[in-house]
Automatic annotation (TrEMBL):
Annotated ranges, domain HTH tetR-type: 28-88
PANTHER family in the cross-refs: HTH-TYPE TRANSCRIPTIONAL REGULATOR RUTR (PTHR30055), TRANSCRIPTIONAL REGULATORY PROTEIN (PTHR30055:SF241)
Highest taxon, organism lineage: Bacteria
PROSITE patterns, A to Z: HTH_TETR_2
Source taxonomy: Bacteria, Bacillati, Actinomycetota, Actinomycetes, Micrococcales
Protein name: TetR/AcrR family transcriptional regulator
Keyword vocabulary terms for this entry: DNA-binding
Residue ranges: DNA binding: 51-70
SUPFAM superfamilies cross-referenced by the UniProt entry: Homeodomain-like
Length: 231
């Protein structure tokens, strides 16, 4: 159990808290452990059913360590959402960097290539299910609480813009382009993926080793509708 002090709980101005929460290597490790623990606890019990104490216990820290990094469960929730999307961006660019030119075959995107990309983004069925549960919890919270809804929408806008730019760069590298405006195409792709992930979570879907992410077949067809060769 960490012995980090709880004396800074709820104290100081936002500027003071910003200086206090500078991400030193030790604080970064603490923050990541809290995020890892929260991902599991929130997925199991929901944000209202999970207490800060339960997150701290799962991470092996005190409440002081929690409040040194997050002001509330809601802030922690938003941090989890942003971390997930940024990890997906890194994974997407990493897998496509090493792909062979056979990504494009006869003017269409090779379904096997799409499967490889999806398997990297969500490599484990259990993670996919927990991710879908987390996403649903966050969306419900954002709809019910304007204080969460506003930063959630701002976060979504920033991350979707970054994701669209990343996908556009990748398409250009392979001589491809979207058949419509970039934001609409990205929104359609994300909506299709999130819908499939929710359906899989509701059905307690399990996958055999090596299967692609939920909805891979639908996404493969959608990609070939949204993507074409650059002229």
């Amino acid at each position: 159990m960490s012995t980090e002090p709880a004396s800074d709980v709820g104290s100081g101005s936002s500027v003071e808290r910003a200086f206090a929460t500078a991400l030193t290597p030790r604080r970064e490790r603490t923050r990541e452990r809290l995020l890892d623990a929260a991902f599991t606890v929130f997925a199991q019990h929901g944000i209202h059913g999970a207490s800060i104490e339960a997150v701290c216990e799962a991470a092996g820290f005190t409440r002081g360590a929690f409040y040194s990094n997050f002001s509330s469960k809601e802030e922690l929730f938003l941090a989890l959402s942003e971390r997930a999307m940024r990890r997906e961006l890194v994974a997407l660019e990493s897998v496509t960097r090493n792909m062979e030119p056979d990504v494009v075959h006869c003017g269409a995107v090779n379904p096997d290539a799409i499967g490889r990309i999806l398997s990297v983004l969500v490599p484990d069925a259990g993670d996919a299910r927990q991710g879908a549960l987390m996403r649903a919890e966050l969306e419900l919270l954002a709809m019910r609480d304007p204080a969460v809804g506003r930063p959630f929408l701002a976060q979504e806008e920033t991350l979707r813009t970054e994701l669209g730019a990343a996908i556009a760069r990748i398409l250009e590298d392979f001589g491809l382009r979207f058949t419509m405006d970039q934001r609409t195409a990205v929104d359609l792709l994300l909506s299709a993926y999130e819908s499939s992930a929710r359906a899989a979570a509701v059905a307690s879907h399990t996958q055999e080793d090596g299967d692609a992410a939920p909805g891979a077949a639908v996404l493969s067809q959608l990609v070939n509708l949204l993507v074409t060769t650059a002229d």
